[in-house]
Amino acid sequence: MQAVGNSVARKDGIGKATGAAKYADDLTFPGMLHGRTIRSTIPCGRVKSIKLDFDETGFTIVDYRDVPARNIVDLIAQDQPFLAEKEVRHMAEPILLLAHEDKEKVNAANVLIEYEEEEPLFDPEKSTQIFKEIDIVKGDVVAALAKADIVVEGTYRTGHQEHVYIEPNGVIAVPEEGGIAIFGSAQCPFYVIKALRCLLGSAHPNVRVVQTETGGGFGGKEEYPSMVAGHAVMLAIKSGRPVKIIYDRVEDMVATTKRHPSIVRHRTGLARDGHLVAMDIDVLLDGGAYVTLSPTVLSRGCIHAAGPYRCENTRIQGRAVFTNTPPNGAFRGFGAPQTQFAVEVHMDRIAEQLGMDPVELRRINALRPGDTTATGQTLRDDCSAHIVLDEAVKRTDFDRKREEYKGTNRTIGLSLFFHGAGFTGAGERNLKSKARLELTPTGVRIAVGSTEIGQGTRTMHAQIVTDALGIPYESVEVAQPDTSKVADSGPTVASRTCMVVGKILEECAIEMKEKLGGMTPNEFYKKNGGISVERMYEPPEWIQWDDHTYRGDAYATYGWGCDVIELELDPNTYEVKPIRITAVQEFGRPIHPALARGQIEGGTAQGLGYALLEHVVMKNGAMANSTLTNYTIPTTLDTPEMDVVMMENPYPGGPFGAKGLGELPIDGPAPAVVNALRYFGLDVREIPATPELLARTASR
Amino acid sequence: MKFTLNGKTTEVAAKPAARLLDVLREELGLTGTKEGCGEGECGACTVLVDGESVCSCIVPVSQVEGADVVTIEGLGGTHPLQELFMNEVGAQCGICTPGMIMAASTLGPTPTLDDVKVALAGNLCRCTGYSAIYRAVMKWRGMTSDDPSLRPVAQ
């Protein structure tokens, strides 16, 4: 039996279902201390004095003066300190670290910090400090707008979104012979290593990061674990003992990254027959107090901002700006959910103004193979916008239901979307990801830094290797990511783990097969001993990208989706009850259908939460509702029936035709929901569409 | 303080106000029960006390004196839900899974899909959107529904 394309037994084993799987907080080490982070309680100002108001016996205390080399979380920019020195830029900024072997004592320790407060900036529209600007130009938007039959304008807003991985951030730093080991919940162990090298310098060259079983990430454990690991390492160095830092839910919600809030403005010119002739788009992202990943989030957001549509005159201008709020960062979708919310709601408003059916408007304009995107990329045969749209409309009986629901408290809406797989532009070429396959006495071992965070990395990688090498699935094992033992296959982000890392593994397996020369792994190992094959990713040669002009092939391929949502609205309370969502998505080919379906179902539920429930309330620069009692994510009772359709249109550059999938599903639900509300008669242009927002909208 | 834990009489030294969750994880070393929020909202710490599912993060250990407590370890790895959660991918990252299985295990022999949703309404999962969890639980009880979420995954 082929492994690829079948829902084979997962490499996770049974441990997650028996409680045997070890997450960071499940580990203890002899002599271990418990660490705690003391954080700023103002959004902007300077630290005047720090007073320790507790008995310091048995405590390890670290501040910025204990930084071994550089007080910088090394990411895109080098602006964020591990520990504030004098300047405080946001609420909950780390200032001081404490550790003690008694968890109760460390939690009870009182630290008094005096500040000189300064006027904070919370409004991104008023910010003059720009982290990144992007300008995408195709054709002549000004001339095309002047000639257009109709111009439709609109402004669309999205709020923060909190990841709510059920396992909060946590790491343990453990001094070991000749160095330090970090065990932690993380998506990108090699990001942590990079940050620690900068923090520690040459005095502590031997650090390694071991990924423990990770209780969800969704982007929230892409860059932030570097911060937590740096803190634990400094406490471990100073105390000489293992130090565990586990955030509680409130700390995790207040202090760590969130999805960037956005304001997107559209000015669109159309011919009377519904053809798009000009799209002028302005994207503003609230980056928070430090750069973190805002430039790349903005990049992906802008590239997706024109939606899956053909338009010869497009201009997309984007800015990510500073505010005195905790830095925003990676979150599944990475800018694209924000901008595709805007364009998809805008499309329904255009349809309304043209008196045209929204499906018809999309059929006229949706991208086809041979069309070019906003960056001038010519799409190939793996473009499926029309395929998913037609299937979703037919499957849901969209046209009939739309008529039938008129005048009732039920409504229906749809969205069409796409998502680029892998790093943007030259990203994959610059990254030079590597993967390694090692021969064992009984088979092979996959040695990559790509992490299993629930999405099925171990299993799908093993399936790819199984079929490419032609050995039994059971004889393929997957190494736990330990940066001292595995190849740096790049970060586990950007829907790249299957398509990109899987591809390198496929090539490794093909090379390994040649080396085995017809022998089984066992026969070869007995005769020649262990060997390994390591290869580097080479993106398709045809990819051309210019980072200065933002022209070219932004992504090697795209996944395509169409969501149709049916809702009921309570006309008195404005509560929205999703009844059914149909998610039609094309992502090349599913390697493991059950895991792939799980990505779509899970991403769709997160998207529905983003649309309707998940409201981050910011007060004085901090999340005011930082508990799961009042920041609500979908429960079983909030999640509707899901009809998932997985369509195939293989991408020749992916392993067995696979594209990336992880992020695609979260782009669609929010605009579909808001379009359904519009059809009900509510002119909603922002999310989350809470009952309060809908009541205000209705009374306008 | 004594109670029955996974079928065995157990004595613990913890303070009466200690959270049952901490006693299980730290004093007794049973780390299968997870902490997600510490306020009884997420259900990751669900255990059974006298057959009812409760959040062990908001139960002082003194409340279980003399009671019958069952944790995920008490299922012994042989409960059919455990294999079904893995095979149906009702477990993705797995952090909610022990609590989810404990809550699901309280369902009667012929639950409807609505019964399953109500039984699991106090258990948050951020990975699956719950559909695969329904597939696992309904398969365990041999129950069906015309909800498309329950359609088997095509092979």
Q: What does this molecule look like?
A:
The complex is a heterodimer of chains A (700) and B (155). Chain A is built from 18 helices and 28 strands. With 700 residues, chain A is an alpha+beta fold. Chain A has three domains: 15-20 and 427-536, 2-Layer Sandwich (Aldehyde Oxidoreductase, domain 4); 31-119 and 164-255, 2-Layer Sandwich (Aldehyde Oxidoreductase, domain 4), CATH 3.30.365.10; 262-425 and 550-699, Aldehyde oxidase/xanthine dehydrogenase, molybdopterin binding domain (Aldehyde Oxidoreductase, domain 4), CATH 3.30.365. In chain A, the strands form seven sheets. Chain A has a seven-stranded mixed β-sheet. Chain A has a six-stranded mixed β-sheet with strand order 7-15-14-13-8-28, with helices on both faces. In chain A, helix 13 packs parallel to helix 14. The longest helix of chain A has 20 residues, at 497-516. Chain A is globular, with a radius of gyration of 25 Å. The relative contact order of chain A is 0.13. The model of chain A has no long low-confidence stretch (mean pLDDT 97). With 155 residues, chain B is α+β, with helices and mostly antiparallel strands. Chain B has two domains: 2-74, Beta-grasp domain (Ubiquitin-like (UB roll)); 80-150, [2Fe-2S]-binding domain (DNA polymerase, domain 1). Chain B is 26% helix and 12% strand. Chain B contains five helices and five strands, in the order E-E-H-E-E-E-H-H-H-H. Chain B has helices spanning 20-27, 80-87, 97-104, 113-119, 131-140, and strands at residues 2-5, 8-11, 46-49, 52-55, 68-70. A five-stranded mixed β-sheet of chain B has the order 2-1-5-3-4, covered by helices on one side. The radius of gyration of chain B is 16 Å and the shape is elongated.
